[in-house]
Structures are given as C-alpha cells and as structure tokens.
Amino acid sequence: MAKQYLLTPGPTPVPEIIQKKMAKPIIHHRTTQYTEIFAAANQVLKKVFKTNSDVVTFTSSGTGAMEAGIVNTLSKGDTVIVVRGGKFGERFANICNAYGVKVVALDIPWGTAPDPALIQKTLAQNKAAKAVFISLCETSTATVYDVQKIGAVVGATDAILVVDTISGLLADEFKMDEWKVDVAVGGSQKGLMIPPGLAFIAFSPKAEALMAKSDLPKFYFDFKRYKKSLAASDVPFTPAITLEIGLKQALAMIEAEGVDTFIKRHRQDAEYVRARTKAMGLSMYSKAPSYAVTAVNVPEGKDGSALVKACKAKGVTFAGGQDTLKGKIIRIAHMGGINRQDLEDALNVLEGCLKELK
Amino acid sequence: MAKQYLLTPGPTPVPEIIQKKMAKPIIHHRTTQYTEIFAAANQVLKKVFKTNSDVVTFTSSGTGAMEAGIVNTLSKGDTVIVVRGGKFGERFANICNAYGVKVVALDIPWGTAPDPALIQKTLAQNKAAKAVFISLCETSTATVYDVQKIGAVVGATDAILVVDTISGLLADEFKMDEWKVDVAVGGSQKGLMIPPGLAFIAFSPKAEALMAKSDLPKFYFDFKRYKKSLAASDVPFTPAITLEIGLKQALAMIEAEGVDTFIKRHRQDAEYVRARTKAMGLSMYSKAPSYAVTAVNVPEGKDGSALVKACKAKGVTFAGGQDTLKGKIIRIAHMGGINRQDLEDALNVLEGCLKELK
Fold it and tell me: Torsions phi, psi of A334, nearest 5?
C-alpha cells in the first residue's frame, strides 16, 4: 500500500520508534518500572509547558482536561468570560453551562484573535468574573491567540486565565509561568506525536488557591487525587499504560531536539506551507495564523469538500472546515510527527488536485 | 530477555496480533474507515454484555464509566444503596459522595458476596433508594456476586441496578438484559485483552427513564452525547483510536471463539488454578470465588509481599492484597489474554518460591 499522509490537526502521525515502544509486552502500573516512566514524563512535560507546576496526565481526550480546568477551580453560579472564536471556545462555554457556571460570552469573528484590550474591558465590566477562557490555537479556525498579552491583562485581576493549548502546544510558542497562565490544558495527539487518549493539565498557585474554594462536583477529573498520587509516585486510577510509554519516548525525542528547536522547526514548516499555498493562489483564512495548522480559503466557486476528497483519494488526508466553514477552507496541519518531506509530498498532491478541480 | 508473565487482575497481557494491529499507522476518526471499526465493535460489545442496548465507549479508565453510571442517572440528594465488600464497592460510594448522592452503605465482610435477601431488606427499609450498586467481580477480594439473584430482587422495585463488570466480564457469566441489570460498566484491560484506556457503559430502558430526570452535572461522561453521535456513526470527542482498533481485533477473536466458549475456557482455567493452589496447600480467600481472578491466603507466618516479590524476580507478576489484605493474600488472574500455558508456568514459579520462602 502506498504511504498515507495524515495532515489533520490531530491525530497526527506517530513516529515508528514510538509505535514500536508502545507495541512491547504490557507492564503493570503499580511497579517501579512504570512509576519511573511517568515521573520522567512529568519532568519533561514541565519543560514543554514551561512551568514549575506539576503537569498531571488524565486518560481521556482533551475535552476531559478542559472539563477538569473548570470543575477543579470554579463553583456553581460563578461568572466567567469565555472567548468564542471557534468550536473549541464554544466547547469551554458548553462545559461551563453544563456545570451551572454563568458564561459571559465574548464572541469574536471566526478566524480572528481576541483583542487583549477587549478582554480588559470585559473584565472591568464583569468584576465578579472568576476566570477567562481562551485557546492558544483555536483549531477550528487555525488561529493563534496572543496569550502573553492576554495573560498580562488577566494577571492584573483576581481572575484566572485558562488556556486550551491542545493543538497549539509545541508549534505555537507557550510559556505558562512567564505569561501568567493559571490553567493550561493539553492533549496527546497533536504536537506530542502520540495517539489520542491522554490529556494534560497544570495549575498555577493562583489557580490552586481558587481550587480550595471550588464546590463543583468531581471525581475522575479531581486534580487533587492526581497530585496526591504523583507525590507518592503513584496514579489514582489505572492509566493508559501503552500511551504513557509512547509519551515517554516522544518526550525523550523532544528533549533531545530541544523544546525550542522543536518549536522553531514547526514554525519553519508553517512558513513553508504558507509560501507554497500562496504560490498556488490560495489565500489565508485566519487573520492571525497559527504555526500548528494553516487554514486556506478554497477558491471562489470551488467545492472544498470535493477538494479534500480528491486529495484523500491520492492518499493525503487534510481537514476541511467545520460548521459554517464546511467546504470553504482546507486545514493543513504541520505539528507533531508531520515532517517537511510529508508536507512537500502532500502539497504537491494538493496542487495537482486543485488544478484538476472544476 | 526471558518471557515476563503478567497475571494481575488488569492490565492483562495483550495478544501479539492485537499489538500489531494497534502499531499500524494511525488513521483519522472522522472517516468511514474508523466509523466502521467502532460500529463493528459496538455490535460485538452487545453480545459480550448480552444486551440489546447500545454499549458506548469512553476514553478513560474504568472509574470514568463508574462515574458515568452515577452522573447520568441520579440527582443531587438522591439516596442509593451501595454494597461495600472491597475497594471497588467503596469507590462507587466515594463517587456518590463526591456528587452529593446519599449513600446507604451495605457493608459486608471482605471476601464474601452480598446475600440477595439482605439487599431486599435494605431496599424495603429505604423505599426512596433510586439505585443499588454492586460488582460482578469485586476485584480486590476476587469475589463474584450473584448478579442474577440480586437483579431479580432489584428488578421488582423502582430502583435501578448498577453493576461494575470491569474485572468479571468474559470470565464470570453476565447477562445484562436477562438478569435485569440497568447499568453495566466495563473496562478494556481485563477480559477484553487490550491495554487500559477504554471504558464501556450500557443503560437499560429503565435506566434511561431515570436519566431523563437526572440533574447531576456532566459533560465528558454525558451518555446522551455519545448515544446521539453513535446514531450518526460519529463520536463526540476524539477517541483513543489505537485502543479502539485493538478492541475491534480483540472482539473479532472473541466472536470467532464464541462468547460462551471464551467464558467457559476461562472458567476451566480458574478451576485449574484452584486445583493447583490447593495441591500446594494454599486455601482460598474468597467465600464466593470469581472465575476471573483467584485469591489465595498466604500461609500463616509467611510474608505475602515477599512472596510476590520473589515471584516477580523470576519473571512472574501476581497481585498482592490491597489495604488490610496487604501481605495476606495473593491474587492470580486468569482472564483475557492469560492462557493455560502462562498459568502452568507461573504456578510452577509460585510453587518453587513458596518452598523457598522462610
């Protein structure tokens, strides 16, 4: 079978060396062999998130960690500000609604990043707001948010800043502590190069102070259980052992390359994709393009879904647009295990399909 | 390296053919290729649970599905009866407590199964009780509960019966619909022969009726989202794709052997373990031994933890006792991918270590 190219913003291709590690005979999780694996992973995850806080791992999709960011810090009836500029901002709002947390929705046009001044104004108008929710990269629109500037704004208030870094991490720059981020949420199947099934979360001391007052019910996603276990080199519930083994291998590779070098390489890949698509006459959809994934507009009068389908028939999987963007954009990921050669090959296919498309 | 034997009650060894399937290049989850995989898995899972209800899959450890059984059916302030005869009965109670559900604890001596008449009496004394929580196999004590008789008792009331089948499924007999079980919870790393990371849940029509009134907050574990997605051949959140691929392979193997034949084979393995350990002079810990895992008492004056350690040094991993049973019992699993040859080899090691133990 010819090589298949998976260039969607998650899952991303898993390097063969990681696949092989995960395919070894399974081990038990209450053993030194396993605790060494996740202790090592935790240490490198801190470097990836650029934080001194513990980064704990859940067995869940990224949404589980988004929920954990809410249920561990907030109380019923609390007011929060949620930036809604795409599907994942909406998800934060939906989870808050499910838990009886009042959402002040800050709706911005899809494909744009929120103006930090607007967040400052909204905070001033909602002094009771306990938290502000944003994404690093809003995956549905391939847009990067200015977390640093928003962190400066939110950090000057009593509110905490919760950031979904799921798709942006390790492609778009992110510095949890320096940028005054209080809750950072990540996932396994993007920049971290492993299959979906693990999610990550870290809390700042400011968030932990709020945690002490939180009354939302939780058990499986109760951070305190994980933190307590971590201190005892243990896990509260049976973890996804094979994925954790893959994570350790992925983190070792990232550390060997250097976190910043890894990020820089993906930025260069993003720039390559931007240049190639521009040369094909495709315009950028996002006003603030992410380095994790690029969204290009499908030319006027052409059917984006047919284009995605034509590429897929030639072995290249891109993501189309979601909801109102269906058929209008194509999203090309350049994160995690996607390398330059994959991008060259895949963009050649895109170029060919574009010409053939009626 | 010599073969390592993992005979703990989860995780269990993953057959090589399943490992290989999971190690193939990853695919995207919003594709026909993937939806066919999970639709096929759902069909066989129904046969495994012996139910006409949909069995949905969460990316989580089994505890996540236990929580889902609670948050999808109950409301704040509800009263429930929880049988506590080991660590996993306790867990159901702890989750209920976390959500403000009042627990009538039916504490029974560890290593015994609850008397259905006692459950009937407790239900009569607590007419407002909305649910009864039990295990099929209480893993911590290797004890099987008489789900059929308890189902007959609970089925005659308005309460629902919630059963944790995580470790018992596919070794101890289980018939969800026929036995009037309303909520069945399962996990991937036991009888199903795949690594940890997936959990399963099915609801009876009686449980779904209660679900309509449930006011406990939920999002990631909200069954309605999964059911709605399933009807559209979709998943609400990115699933643990590689584990799901392994699941499909495992279920194909189980279906080829026949669910009942698979269960019978494990019962025969359990009987073999009972006979061999009896011949070694080891007595059974449980008064109602499960066919999934056998717990034997460590001989008086001997240190069970040292025995487990000695076996581990020879490549055989058994589980010891938990909490008050630490050092007092050894648990030998004979579920999922553990085969007769593994058991023969491992019991030979146990026999040798037992003789050498001071």
Answer: -140, 50
Instruction: Judge whether A70 and A210 are in contact, CB under 8 Å.
Output: no
pLDDT tens-digit map of B118-177: 999 999 999 999 999 999 999 999 999 999 999 999 999 999 999 999 999 999 999 999
The closest of B111, B174, B104, B162 to B133, measured between CA atoms, is B162
Grouping H, G, I as helix, E, B as strand and the rest as coil, residue A244 is helix
The pLDDT assigned to A38 comes to 85
* Interface touch B220/A60, C-beta < 8 Å: yes
CA dist B47 and A17 (Å) reads 36
SS (H, E, C) chain B: CCCCEECCCCCCCCCHHHHHHHCCCCCCCCCHHHHHHHHHHHHHHHHHHCCCCCEEEEECCHHHHHHHHHHCCCCCCCEEEEEECCHHHHHHHHHHHHCCCEEEEEECCCCCCCCHHHHHHHHHHCCCCCEEEEECEECCCCEECCHHHHHHHHHCCCCEEEEECCCCECCECCCCCCCCCCEEEEECCCCCCCCCCEEEEEECHHHHHHHCCCCCCCCCCCHHHHHHHHHCCCCCCCCCHHHHHHHHHHHHHHHHHCHHHHHHHHHHHHHHHHHHHHHCCCCECCCCECCCEEEEECCCCCCHHHHHHHHHHCCEECEECCHHHCCCEEEEECCCCCCHHHHHHHHHHHHHHHHHCC
- Rg for chain A (alpha carbons), in Å? 20
Predicted TM-score (pTM) above 0.90: yes
A35 sits in which H/E element: helix A32-49
Residue A25 has its nearest CB partner, among B13, B61, B197, at B13
Q: How far apart are CA A53 and CA B42, in angstroms?
A: 40
Task: Give the separation between CA B260 and CA A261, rounded to whole angstroms.
Answer: 55
Residue A237: its chain B contacts at CB < 8 A?
61-64
Q: How far apart are CA B243 and CA A189, in angstroms?
A: 13
CA A318, CA A346: separation in Å to the nearest integer?
Answer: 9
pLDDT digits (tens, 9 = 90+) for A20-71: 999 999 999 998 889 999 888 999 999 999 999 999 999 999 999 999 999 9
Tell how strand B55-59 and strand B198-203 pair up: antiparallel
Interface mutation target, options B34, B238, B244, B332, chain A, most CBs of A under 10 Å: B238
- Using the beta-carbon criterion (under 8 Å), do A240 and B195 form an inter-chain contact? yes
Taking only the tens place, the pLDDT of each residue in A274-310 is: 999 999 999 999 999 999 999 999 999 999 999 999 9
User: CA A82, A84, A90, A92: dihedral to nearest 10 degrees?
Assistant: -30
Domains of chain A: 5-12+259-356 (3.90.1150.10), 16-255 (3.40.640.10)
Please count the other Cβ atoms lying within 10 Å of the Cβ belonging to residue A229.
15
Single-letter amino acid, residue B230: L
Q: How far apart are CA B346 and CA B71, in angstroms?
A: 41
Surface of B (146-185) touching A: CB under 8 A: none
